[in-house]
Amino acid sequence: MTTTAEPEAITTTINPFRYRRRATRVVMVGDVAVGGHNPIRLQSMTTTRTQDVEATAAQAERLVRAGCEIVRITAPTPRDARAIGEVRAILKSRGIKVPLVADIHFSPEAAMAAADHADKVRINPGNFADSRKFAVYEYSDEEYAAEVRRIEERVSPLILKLKERGLALRIGTNHGSLSDRIMNRYGDTPRGMVESALEFVRICRKLDYHNIILSMKASNPVVMIAAYRLLDAYMQREGMDYPFHLGVTEAGNGEDARIKSAVGIGTLLLDGIGDTIRVSLAEEPEEEIPVARALAEMLPAALIEQGGEAGLTGATPSPSWNPLESARRHARTIHLGAAPTGGDEHALVLTPYQLAGTVSHASGPRTLPIAGVAASRAPRPDAVAFDVAGEADLQRLAELAWKGPGAPRTALLARGHDASLLARALEQAEGAYLLLDGDSGAVDGLVQAAHVAGKALLVESASVDDVVSVARTAQGTGLRDLALAFRANDVLSLLHGYRLLAARLDEAALDVPLHLRYAGDEPLIPASAALGALLCDGIGDIAGVEGADGRPLVPLTFNLLQATRRRITKTDYVACPSCGRTLFDLQTTTEKVKARTAHLVGVKIAIMGCVVNGPGEMADADFGYVGGAPGKVNLYVGKECVERNVPEDEAADRLVALIKARGRWQEEGDDEAAAAPERQA
Ligand code: SF4
Questions:
Q1: Structure confidence at residue 579 as a pLDDT band (50, 70, 90)
Q2: Res. 677: pLDDT tops 60
Q3: 275 with 35: CB under 8 angstroms?
Q4: pLDDT over 50 (residue 459)
C-alpha cells in the first residue's frame, strides 16, 4: 500500500481483520506508566490561567476526582512554567498526586523552566523553534538540512535536561500548525505531520533519549487517523517503538465533538494504536473524562492489558482499500425510492421506522412523522424500515404507503425475517429489507420479486458468506438496486465482518453498496468508532444507528456522516478546548456563534481562544472567530485576518455580515441539506 504524497513505498502492518495492540516500550510520566501492556491512560488539560495557581490546582483536583490520570497545564512563559511547581505543591498539600505536563508553544525558555517543575513537557514541533509566516519558499536539500541542524541546536538543551532528570517528552504535532519548512516540502498532509515529528525523534535518538510519546492531532478525524497510521508505518520501518497519545483537536462541544473524537480515537484504538488519550471538548475539562473512559473501555481489558488478540483467523482476502488513504470504495449507484447512493452519490441515512403522530396523505406525497426527527435540526432520513412480521403489518404498511403522484421524500422499506412476506410487501413499499437468519430458502424468490417490481432490496446477515451469495444471485437475476449489511454483537466483530464483506465483494467484482448498521445500548461511542472506522476506510454507502430497543437515532447518524466527511448537512465547527491563554468564555461564545450559524450547510467556522495559536490551528476553516485581546475578537476569512479588535458584543453580528458578504450565507429553512455535496477530506 502506498501513499500518494510519497514516491517511496510505505506499508502498514495493521491487520484490518484482526486486533492486536501495537507493541511499544513503556514511558513513565511521573508514576504513571504509558504504553506496553498498561491500560489506556486518560488525560485532560486545565483551562485556567496557569499563574492563578489556586484556580489551576482546584481544576486539576476536579479532573483527578473525575478519573483523569495525567493533567496538562499551559506554560506560555517561564513564569507559567514555574507556577506548575506551585500547583503541584498545592495538590500535594491536599493529598493529590498526579503527573503534571507543561504544554509549550514557541518558547524554548519556558520548556527549560518546565523541566524543573513538570513530569513531562509537550512541545509542538511546528512552532518550538520556528515561528510560522505562511511563507512560500522552495528549500534546497542543503537549506533544509541546515534548518534541521538549527532545530537540533535549539531543542538539544531541553532533551539533555529531560534525560538528566528522567522526565518524559511529548512531541505533539498539530495538523494546523506545521512549520513553513514542512509545509513547503510536504504540504498540509499526514506525511508532513509525520516528518515534522520524526525530525525531532531522530534528534532525541541521537542524544540517546527515549522517554518519548508522540501525537498527530487534527480537527478532521480522517486526517488524524491517516497521520497516526502513517506514523506507525514509518516508525516500524525505522525500528521505533514509542507510545502514542491520541486526540482529535479543536473538536468543539456537544454530540458533534464526542462523535468526532470517537471516530478518530476509536478507529485507532480498534486498530490497536494508542496508549493515552485526550478527548478535547469546548466544555468544562472534567466533562472530557467520561467520554475518554468510554473509549478506553470499549475493548475488553484482556485485549489491552494482556496482549490478547481478536478477530478473523485463517486466510483473508487482501483489502481492496488503502488504510493510509481515504478513498471511497467503488460501488455502483443504486436507488432507495428516489434517493441515489453508491457511485459518487453521498451516503444515505436509513433507520428503523417508529411512527410519531398521525399520517396524513391529504395534501400530497407522504411526509411520515418520524420519531426523533421533528425536535432536532437534522434532516429527515432518506429511508425508513417498517417491521413486517405478519398480515396485520402488511395492512399497516398499506396505510402508510403513498399511492398518489410525486416521489415521496422518505423511502419506505418493509423489513423482516420472512422473505415470502417481504415479497408481498413490495407492492406497497419502495423496497424490502431482509434479516437473513441462516435459512435462505425463499431469498431467491425475493430477489426475483424485487427485480420484477423494480424495487430495492437490502439483505443483512451475521454470515458474510450468505450475503455474498445473495449478491451473486442478484447478479444472475439482473437486480441492481441491492445493498448488503452485516450483523454482529460487538464492535470488533462488526468492524472486521464489514471489512471482510467489502474485500470479498471486491475480490469477486461485485460492486454492491453496503449499509452500515449499528444497533445497541449507549451507541454513541461504539457506533461512532466502528462505523466511523469503516466510513474513514471508504466503506459504506448507507448508514443507520439505532438503540438496542430499535429507537432510530437520526441526528446521530447524520452527525457521524458529517464527522467522516461522507455527507455534509450542517455547519462544521472547529472550537479550541480553551486553556490558560483563552481570551473569552469559550463555552458561551461557541453557543452564541452556533445559535446564529448552525444551519449553514458546508460552511466551516473556527472559534479559537487566542491569536497565539488560534489562526495556526484553525486548519481549513472558512471563517475564524479568534480572541485578539481581552474583550476583542479578530475575524478571519481562511487564514487572513480581515477585521481586528472587534468588540466582543458585536463580533457575532460582524461574523454573520462577513459570511453574507462572502456569499456563503443561507437563510434558515433552505432545505439544501439533502442536496449537499459529499466532501472527501
Ligand atoms: S487556541 Fe485555544 S487552546 Fe490553543 S492556545 Fe489558544 S486559547 Fe489555548
A1: confident
A2: no
A3: yes
A4: yes
Task: Look at residues 203, 57, 219 and name the one whose alpha carbon lies nearest to residue 123.
Answer: 203
Pairing outcome for strands 27-29 and 32-34: antiparallel
Atom of ligand 1 nearest to the CA of 580: 8
Residue 678 pLDDT: 33
Please report the atom of ligand 1 found closest to the CA of residue 609.
Answer: 7
The answer, as to whether pTM is greater than 0.70, is yes
Q: Give the separation between CA 307 and CA 151, rounded to whole angstroms.
A: 38
Q: Buried b / exposed e across 484-516, counting CB within 10 Å, b at 16+?
A: bbbbeeebbbbbbbbbbbbbbbbeeebbbbbbb
E runs forming strands in 289-347: 309-311, 334-336, 339-341
Query: 376 falls in which pLDDT band (50, 70, 90)?
Result: low
Q: How many angstroms is it from 174 CA to the middle of ligand 1? A: 12
| Ligand 1 lining (C-beta closer than 6 Å) | 576-579, 581-582, 608-610, 612-614, 617
Closest CA to 555 of 345, 303, 372, 335: 372
Cα separation, 663 vs 660, in Å, equals 5
- Classify strands 334-336 and 339-341 as parallel, antiparallel or unpaired: antiparallel
**Nine cell digits for residue 500:** 471482510
pLDDT digits (tens, 9 = 90+) for 314-368: 888 888 888 888 789 999 999 998 899 999 999 999 999 876 556 666 656 666 6
The Cβ-side half-sphere exposure at 103, using a 13 Å CA radius, reads 19
pLDDT for res 8: 61
The answer to whether 681 and 222 are in contact (CB under 8 A) is yes
Report the atom number in ligand 1 closest to the C-alpha of 582. Answer: 7
C-alpha cell at 389: 412480521
Tell which one of 74, 107, 590, 608 to mutate to probe ligand 1, the residue whose CB is within 8 A of the most ligand atoms. Answer: 608
Cα dihedral 213, 226, 156, 170, rounded to 10, equals: -30
Mean pLDDT of the chain: 90
Residue 581 C-alpha to ligand 1 middle, in angstroms? 6
Q: Is 215 exposed, middle or buried (0-12, 13-18, 19+ CB in 10 A)?
A: buried
Nearest alpha carbon, ligand 1 atom 8 = 579
Residue pair 586/575 in contact (Cβ under 8 Å)? The answer is: yes
Predicted local distance difference test score (pLDDT) of residue 6: 47
Q: Which of 387, 518, 399, 383 is nearest to 455 (CA)?
A: 383
Cβ 118 vs Cβ 167: under 8 Å: yes
How many A from CA of 582 to the centre of ligand 1?
A: 6
Taking the CA of residue 612 as reference, the ligand 1 atom at the shortest distance is 6
Calculate how far, in angstroms, residue 650's C-alpha sits from the geometric centre of ligand 1.
Answer: 22
Cα separation, 434 vs 468, whole angstroms: 14
pLDDT digits (tens, 9 = 90+) for 431-458: 999 999 876 678 999 999 999 999 999 9
Alpha carbons 642 and 461: distance in angstroms, whole number: 55
Cell of 665: 450565507
- With a CB cutoff of 8 Å and minimum separation 6, the contacts of 643 are 634, 635, 654, 658
**pLDDT tops 90 at residue 550:** no
Ligand 1 atom nearest the C-alpha of 614 is 1
What was the pLDDT predicted at 5? Answer: 44
